[in-house]
Hints:
alpha/beta; Maf protein; 6 helices; 24% strand
Amino acid sequence: MSIDAASAQLYLASRSPRRAELLRQLGLRFETLPVEVVETPAPGQTPADYALATALAKALAAARSAPRALPVLGADTDVALDGEILGKPRDRAQGLAMLERLSGRVHEVYSAVAVVAGGRRESALSVTRVHFGPIRAEEAEAYWDSGEPADKAGAYAIQGYAARWVKTIEGSYSGVVGLPLYETVALLERFGVKVFPRPVP
């Protein structure tokens, strides 16, 4: 994010444009510190534990390279069906298979946030139930060919074309997009980061 570095309130340990936009929605001033961490669930690890561990790993990795002593925010969002984590599809076949599995079903989205500052670390988790209506095979194929689902957990973006399949949602919409704002604000305020409405121009 191109801002005066001296005015930043926090660092965002992510290169996700969706998370950056959600933070901007709150009027927060931040710099991005993208990091690479291993994103592979351990054997037997639950979706909740995996999301929390990954969010914290991202925040800790970014904190090690942070040039200033500001809170660092890490986040991770995972789609799970029947307790199985559906990551980002590695190819078209896997993406279409994910959409076929989600069709007409209820799945969960685990969206975790972690904040690190000094020796202190705190995390929070949002779990949202999303009910998809039927997805016809030709719709799934056209959706994949649009390019939108290729880098998305569960092979869909709720803020994009996939919204047409969402019958109901129980939980945090922003969490499904990639950053549960209620939990994020609560964490940041505990670290002294003030979140106020953006001034009207």
